[in-house]
Amino acid sequence: MNEAVEAATPAVAINPHLRVLILDDETESLPRTLGITEEREKELDDLTKRSFEGYNTFTDTFAEISKNVRHANELVYCVFHVGSIAGRGKTLKMLDESGIGKLLGGLAGRSRNSEDSEDSED
To answer: Which of 2, 90, 108, 114 has the highest CB neighbour count under 10 A?
Structure first.
C-alpha cells in the first residue's frame, strides 16, 4: 500500500505496528473495504485455501498466511476467510452426520477431519 493512501486513511488499531486501514466504508465488499483489488483477492483466496488444507491447526495456518501477506488488511481478510471455510466445513460435517448429506446424494461432502473410507459405496 502506498504511503499517500496510508497517510490519508484513518487507522483502526491499538497496536501501532499492526494497523488495519478502512479504505472504502461505502462498499459491501470486505476486500474492497480493506483496499484489496479483485486480482489480489483471488491470490489471497488461493493462499488461504492452500494454507487451510496444508496444515492441521489454525495456528499453523495463520502462521503460513502471515508469511505471505503484504499488509495487516490482507491478514484480516485471510483470517476472516479461514473462518468462513472452517464454518462451512463444520456445517457440511453436521449435514453429513445427520444423514441429510446422504439424502442429498453426498452433496454435503466431507469435513476436514472426517474419514474418507467411511460410507463408500462402490
So the answer is: 108
Position 11 in a domain: yes
pTM attached to this predicted model: 0.61
| Count of structural domains, the chain | 1
| Cα(122)–Cα(118) distance, integer angstroms | 12
pLDDT tens for the chain, 122 residues long, are: 444 445 445 554 456 666 778 787 788 899 999 999 999 999 999 999 999 999 988 899 999 999 999 999 999 999 999 998 888 876 666 656 666 555 555 444 444 444 444 444 44
**Which residue range forms the structural domain that includes residue 95?**
3-103
Residue 46 C-alpha cell reads as: 488461493
Q: Is residue 108 part of a domain?
A: no
Stretch (H or E) spanning 58:
helix 58-66
